[in-house]
Write a structure and sequence with these properties.
- This protein has helices spanning 7-46, 49-82, 85-119, 121-124, 126-155, 174-178, 183-212, 217-251, 253-260, 294-300, 321-350, 358-367, 370-386, 406-436; strands spanning 160-162, 168-170, 272-279, 284-291, 389-391, 395-396.
- A hairpin with a 3-residue loop joins strand 5 and strand 6.
- 67% of the residues lie in helices and 6% in strands.
- It has one domain.
- It is found in: Cell inner membrane; Cell membrane.
């Protein structure tokens, strides 16, 4: 049934599906962990119950999102072995230790404090509990740091040599590998994206409850905090994205040319193509709408600066331009929509209509999921734009895969799709149910009552006064 399909394409589709599904949860939990730390810190500083209520409200949602992120991430480590064993063998001496550092630092830090954060507020005292919350938030950031370092090395590899077996091995300082040329830009861009994604979700939930009850203090507080975050972070993210783009132009020029749709060189200033339909086969963008010389201004800060074209590079080294072209526009378009939401919220705040402007609240609800869409679109731009390489400029994707049989890969891909949508769909549905519930005064922490498991029933507590006698 699947014998006629390309097993490499299927393996790429499988990894794209699992990693895209996975990153939905870290992009939320990274920002939400920091938001929880802010809420608990404000409660400790001010003593206002509303901050503690919101902390407990979002803590339940964080627990589910964090758990699904961990589970969905485990799958990818197996895919490295089953589908990409050649890549693992050749790049393992470099990326293996980096991924191990993520486990030894971030994962152990999160595992050590997560239980205290979820269930220990009444056990350890408020200040120590706040330390646990901060450690979990720090762990999510450390985890992002190591993973982005690994992926950035694949984009802009440095600090390595290739041994007689064709393996990438460290050469010199590990700092050169970790802090490769694209790493700082990509880390900042990714972390800010997580914060922006979280602020949009929190803002959408707050707006939803404001539409139901304008006077709800909890809804007002979370909506106000989210809109401040969107208004401040969205322009910073656009600036960070611009800096990341300039770095990419320097180190991965064909990727940027694919993003811009430039097949032909522009010796006297390149136009910015707003829309169009790129065709690798024809080597041009059909039905394009463009602004003269604006691309050169953005990429070179000079209207007349020359830019190369994809035709200056071998055709077999071009990325799939239509995918990169459109995913980039989705990401950028949503980024400016987020900026618009932040600016409109500032206008509403100045006019003292932040809590009763129905149009703004509906706008915020519509924008709620767009952070996830923008994050996925950004990763598609990055990963598809790196093609045809796994390690840019050194190891082709066509040389990185395991000996694969198309039916086996197709069957596992279908199994992943079914299981993911069933299991994680149930988790997302439960998160929506929690979000739909209005926060209340005295919000409780997640329950941790013992439950019957494996046929064992916990013994009842011993009555101290009776000494345990019946």
């Amino acid at each position: 049934m699947f014998d006629g399909l390309d097993p490499v394409i299927l393996a790429r589709a499988q990894f794209a599906f699992t990693v895209s599904f996975h990153f939905i949860f870290p992009s939320f939990s990274i920002g939400l962990a920091s938001y929880l730390a802010v809420l608990e810190g404000l409660w400790l500083r001010t003593g206002k119950q509303v901050y503690l209520d919101l902390f407990q409200y979002w803590l339940k949602i964080f627990a589910i999102a964090f758990g699904m992120g961990v589970v969905s991430g485990i799958v990818m480590s197996y895919e490295f072995g089953t589908n990409w064993s050649v890549f693992s063998t050749k790049a393992g001496p470099v990326i293996g230790p980096l991924m191990a550092y993520e486990v030894l630092t971030a994962f152990f830090l999160e595992a050590g404090f997560l239980g205290v954060m979820l269930f220990g507020r009444s056990k350890v005292g408020p200040r120590l509990h706040y330390v646990a919350t901060c450690m979990v938030a720090l762990g999510t950031l450390i985890s992002a740091t190591w993973i982005i370092s690994v992926n950035s090395w694949m984009q802009t590899p440095t600090g390595f040599a290739i041994n007689a077996k064709g393996q990438f091995v460290p050469a010199g300082s590990w700092l050169t590998i970790i802090f490769n040329p694209s790493f700082p830009f990509r880390l900042v861009h990714t972390v800010i994206a997580s914060y922006l994604t979280t602020s949009l979700v929190v803002g959408a939930v707050g707006a939803w409850h404001l539409l139901r009850k304008r006077e709800d203090l909890h809804a007002r507080k979370m909506f106000s905090m989210a809109m401040w975050m969107a208004a401040i972070v969205a322009p910073i993210q656009i600036f960070a994205g611009d800096m990341h783009g300039l770095n990419t132009l320097e180190h991965q020029t064909p990727k940027v040319l694919a993003m811009e749709g430039h097949y032909e060189a522009s010796p006297k200033g390149a136009p910015l193509i707003l829309f169009g339909f790129p065709s690798n086969a024809e080597g041009r963008v059909n039905y394009k709408v463009e602004v003269p010389k604006l691309s050169s201004l953005i990429l070179r800060h000079d209207l007349n600066a020359p830019l190369p074209g994809l035709k200056d590079y071998p055709r077999d080294r071009w990325p799939p331009v239509p995918i990169v072209f459109w995913s980039f526009r989705i990401m950028v378009g949503l980024g400016f929509a987020m900026l618009g939401l932040g600016l409109v919220s500032l206008l509403a705040r100045v006019r003292k209509r932040l809590y009763d402007w129905t149009l703004l609240h509906r706008f915020a609800i519509v924008m709620g999921p767009t952070g996830f869409v923008a994050v996925i679109a950004g990763w598609v731009t990055t990963e598809v734009g790196r093609q045809p390489y796994t390690v840019y400029g050194h190891l082709l994707t066509a040389q990185s895969h395991s000996p694969l049989a198309a039916p086996a890969v197709a069957a596992s891909l279908l199994a992943f799709i079914l299981v993911y949508f069933f299991v994680f769909g149930a988790g997302v549905f439960y998160i929506f149910r929690l979000m739909a519930r209005t926060p209340v005064v005295g919000e409780s922490e997640p329950t941790h009552d013992p439950a019957r498991a494996a046929g064992i029933t916990p013994a009842p507590a011993i009555d101290a006064e009776s000494g345990g006698r019946g």
